[in-house]
């Protein structure tokens, strides 16, 4: 099964609108050698903080790079101070939204029910849900990787199966071991391969052959120096990049490594 490789930048709470525009201006020449492939053979998305979406969208116009959002509220509108709804995001051109990020789970108390409500909202639209999953260090050391993935994935997969949307266009799974996020402690290629294989197994169990079309990204301390060993693993279809995505040079290096490893595979 051939899947289009995908690299997503998650800027978290970094970069003002001005810095985002500067980033785009710096990135575009770096991607020029394969600009014609972006959006067709290789997909790229950037998730800035909400205030930078508009300006970044304009700065990326015509590049093939799409806008993503870091979060969404499950309701369409209403009295939810400080929240942002899906129509607000699509109005600015967002094509995908991160849900279930471990920082949302741990720092903002988002539980599985909330994440499912957000997923349902996205499934009722044409926007892609990038569902983040992954175990904490205690869970891994306690041998609970599989049960954590089952809890975080199986019900979302059932919801995708029950929706009218083609799974490969509705869902992307990002495997982000919590102990690797922002710590400089990257998963070994063997650990990533095993976790991605387990996620693929669950996708195919729940979605049948369509589960082969869902892309699985690796995230957690991914840098130009370690990207190749991870991206060349089977079932690693791309990356969700935090810290290293803030710099156009590092980000473009990761994109170029992703392109090489995935094209070598086909
Ligand atoms: P880092 O790449 O900074 O570890 O962050 C990963 C991440 O959480 C992306 O969503």
Would you kindly provide a brief summary of this structure?
With 266 residues, the protein is an alpha/beta fold. The protein has helices spanning 17-31, 53-59, 86-91, 102-107, 112-123, 137-141, 145-162, 167-170, 189-207, 224-231, 248-265, and strands at 6-10, 43-47, 66-69, 94-99, 128-133, 171-175, 215-219, 238-241.
Give the count of helical stretches. Answer: 11
Strands side by side in the biggest sheet:
1-2-3-4-5-6-7-8
What would CATH call the homologous superfamily?
A: Aldolase class I
Q: Average pLDDT, to the nearest integer?
A: 96
Number of strands: 8
Overview of the structural elements:
- With about 270 residues, the protein is of the alpha/beta class.
- It is built from eleven helices and eight strands.
- It has a single domain (about 5-265), classed as Aldolase class I (TIM Barrel, Alpha-Beta Barrel), CATH 3.20.20.70.
- The chain has helices spanning about 15-30, 55-60, 85-90, 100-105, 110-125, 135-140, 145-160, 165-170, 190-205, 225-230, 250-265, and strands at about 5-10, 45, 65-70, 95-100, 130-135, 170-175, 215-220, 240.
- Strand 3 (about 65-70), helix 3 and strand 4 (about 95-100) form a beta-alpha-beta unit.
- The model has no long low-confidence stretch (mean pLDDT about 95).
- The protein binds 1,3-dihydroxyacetonephosphate.
């Amino acid at each position: 099964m051939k899947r289009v490789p995908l690299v997503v930048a998650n800027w978290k709470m970094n970069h003002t609108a001005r810095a985002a525009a500067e980033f785009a201006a710096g990135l575009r020449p770096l991607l020029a050698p394969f600009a014609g492939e972006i959006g067709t053979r290789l997909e790229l998305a950037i998730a800035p903080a909400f205030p930078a979406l508009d300006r970044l969208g304009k700065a990326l116009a015509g590049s093939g790079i799409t806008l993503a959002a870091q979060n969404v509220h499950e309701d369409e509108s209403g009295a939810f101070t400080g929240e942002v709804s899906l129509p607000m995001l699509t109005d600015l051109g967002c094509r995908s939204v991160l849900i279930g990020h471990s920082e949302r789970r741990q720092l903002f108390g988002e539980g599985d029910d909330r994440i499912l409500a957000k997923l349902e909202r996205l499934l009722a639209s044409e926007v892609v849900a990038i569902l983040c999953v992954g175990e904490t260090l205690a869970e891994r050391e306690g041998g609970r990787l599989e049960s954590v993935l089952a809890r975080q994935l199986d019900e979302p997969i059932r919801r995708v199966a029950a929706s009218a949307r083609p799974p490969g266009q509705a869902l992307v799974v990002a495997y982000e071991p919590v102990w690797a996020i922002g710590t400089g402690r990257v998963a070994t290629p063997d650990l990533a391969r095993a976790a991605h294989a387990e996620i693929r197994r669950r996708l195919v169990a729940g979605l049948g052959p369509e589960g082969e079309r869902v892309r699985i990204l690796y995230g957690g301390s991914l840098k130009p120096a370690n990207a190749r060993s991870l991206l060349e693993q089977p079932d690693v279809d791309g990356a969700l990049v935090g810290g290293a995505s803030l710099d156009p040079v590092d980000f473009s290096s990761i994109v170029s490594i992703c392109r090489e490893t995935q094209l070598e595979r086909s």
